[in-house]
Amino acid sequence: MSERVNVDKKSSDPVAAAKAEAALPALGPMGMLRWAWTQLTSMRTALFLLLLLAVAAVPGSLFPQRPANPSVVTQYIKDNPDYGKLLDTLQLYDVYSSAWFSAIYLLLFISLIGCVVPRAIAHYKAMRSQPPRTPKRLSRLPEYGTLVIPADAGIPASDAITSAAAVLKKRGYRVEVRDSGGERPSLGAERGFTKEVGNLVFHTSLIGVLVSVAIGGLFGYSGQRILVEGDTFVNTLVGYDQFTPGTNFESGRLQPYSVQLDKFDITFDRESEGKFGQPIDFSAAVTTKENPDAPARQEILKVNDPITLGGTSIYLTGNGYAPLVTIRDGDGNVAMQGPVVAKLQGDNYYSSVVIKVPDAKPDQLGFAGFFLPTAFVSNEGVSFSGDPDLFNPQLTLNSYYGDLGLDDGAPQNVFELDVQDLTPLNARNLDAGGITLAPGSSYTLPDGKGTISFDGVKRYIGVDIHHNPGQLYALIFALLAVAGLILSLYVNRRRVWVRTGTHADGRTMVEYGLLARGEDHRLAAEAQAVRKLLSGEWQLDADAPGPESSQQTPNREQDNDPGAATTTGSVTTPAGPTGPEKDQ
Amino acid sequence: MPYGINETMGQYSELFMLLAAGTYTVAFIAFAWDLAKSSKALRAIDLKAAQAEDPARVPVGARAGDRSESHLAGPAGRAERPSSSASPSAGNGAGGAITADADMKYAAERRAPARVAVALTVLGALIHGAGVLTRALGAGRVPWGNMYEFLTTGAFVAAAVFLLVLIRRDLRFLGTFVVGLVIIMLVAASVAYWTPVGHLVPALQSYWLIIHVSIAVLSSALFTLTFAMSALQLVQARRLKAVAAGGTDKLGFMRLVPSALSLENLSYRINAIAFIGWTFTLMFGAIWAEKAWGRFWGWDTKEVWTFVIWVVYAGYLHARATRGWTGTRAAWLSIVGYLCVIFNFTIVNQFFNGLHSYSGL
After folding, report:
1. Does A282 sit within 8 Å of B205, measured CB to CB?
2. Is residue B1 part of a domain?
3. What are phi and psi of B342, to 5 degrees?
């Protein structure tokens, strides 16, 4: 990112020793800060932070993560008492919001800003300034060639440079002609400024993506709700089964739209042998209202096809069966009636059922067991579901009575029944046995505790509701980033210099040189193209003198200013050597 | 469920896959034979030259050596940065250790076994393509809905990309590597991940499956090529260093492989394309995730690893622009990136729980 790479790190040993002996001047606090800033914005540090980020992201895939699966994390800590807690201290269950992960990416982004800003300023200046002055020795450039215009063509050096400038301008170069009336007129040309622009846009857009994600986290919200066929969800806080607000969320932002689940259909695969019974289509027919007074609309909610309503999107994320039961208590009153959401446990919608009846009198009742859409019993006597569809629905339950512990107001998991303080009524190992019900049948509990009847089966769906105001911006910045990336990788920044002069015998001698900034494997092709264009302009045979041939070069010794002959070895182009440049 | 399943087509597809794997195996042997034969022939020429007491340059070696030299000195060579740790820049004594052209252009001499190998690879790819096509027809959808299909289609794309690049560049030295990997992928698909033709689960029924996964397959195929090149680059760099230091050349067949610097430059260019492809994979995946799960990014295990791969290759691109990180270190990053790709496909799909699990078996 930054061009401040430590070039002189590798010094020979005596020098290093001398350096070690020399007393370092005190930096002072400002100096320290400057030094730290230079270090942070150096390319090496950026590269190191980038690789560190990759490494730091890995643990999040190795350990269960709280944001995705809080209950799995709790279980994991329970299952691994020796190191589970330690991992929690190290924030390994919240990797992506952990202090160390945040530190890495924040440092990376600071480094990025510290690099992008100076580069943007430098590039802005470069775009407004003229191409660098013509190097004294064009022959030292990576691409060099000469052309000779015969004397009878009648093109003097100054005309040649003007037409060369026109050719290069047409090719997209920015051109400046120097010394056009002089002995050795020359031109400097440069193109490919969009490379660096793309590079800057790419990195700036990454900051944009990060900010968009942060905005989503601040002002967004998400929630879940289970809807049994016939149920209606109204978008208010109480309407959600589970709700995760963003940091700056206000409940007033919820628009009170409503969604009613009319019918939920599943298509099962009845064709292929290998995946027989696999669901291949979920389709929920819903009635939506933008607000309580708005007209009702019929819509279809599917996987991969969310409904957009009131600034939120509603997603179909789960489904299952909800057996309908009626429970009468010991006094003969209906204590509970309606669908019970069965939680998926295994293959073919093998689901667990928990029913809590706090209103039953004289004793509260609890039921726990399983729902099987197509019940089978294996040879070992184990019940299992043979098919996901409702071919032979069965409810198998144990029952309990006693205090459910709901009266003190402490929240409980509706899918779990704590049987510690309850007295069992029905179970396999009791005389009364377990309860097995088919639709339409009912069962009378022992000891006159009541009855339970299985009235039918409905389907339910789980929906996720999300509102993320940063999402659109994240997309825009991501697209910008890609556009910038492509520009920065595929636009080449090149410089061309041309110098002309008149030979003693009247011929006009032309020499040109090309230089690329950064990697440019097509520079040679560009040199060929420029050569061809110039030859065409002056009606020369482009292939006559090879681009490398030095014999044809006029006044090889004096093709630079007289003084230049004394300069030694090093390349003296203003652009510097074509060493590694920072481009990403 | 738009189309029906055609199990007969599925069976044809499996037959084609088997035939393709067989053809590739013969092609692999031919590629290996080419390497062995060329290495032997070159050594014989060297020996003769040594007896003729012309220590510096010899007929065939010289012809090729000089050409590669002139290329390095010439336009193509100049545009490259002389930063590779073992840059065989002409005249440092290692010039004779490379017969391959620095530009990877086709040379004049005929390499019969290599020609046979390429022809067989083309034949294998055609049969393989038929296998992929019949699989798609049998399932009535794009042939990348599970790991078996992703592997078979991915292997086909890898072979096709390799053959396409062969039109422009003489990368036949990569033949054993690429065809070997293709065979491994086909065998792994048939043995470990075999799945009969079937419908897509609802979660995968989206046009994003076509976009997101096809770009992922293509990028992975390109990463496969650069992985092979980076691995060869490391071997070549070591070898050239040893040869330059006056050691004996134990890996004669590596003469057919271009210099470490040329390998580095070409793999950088391919990696740049693949990186853009991977960026699109990541982005389209995020858009699809938003459509399917309601959030564009949720650090699902697969998302994590896709991100890790992206960051590693981003590091690679930066390394190429950082002094001291080019050459061998960049090659290692490229290799690490590819190992992450492999890990993401195999281990993450099978052993890590995540939202992408259904795309597994």
Report:
1. no
2. no
3. -60, -45
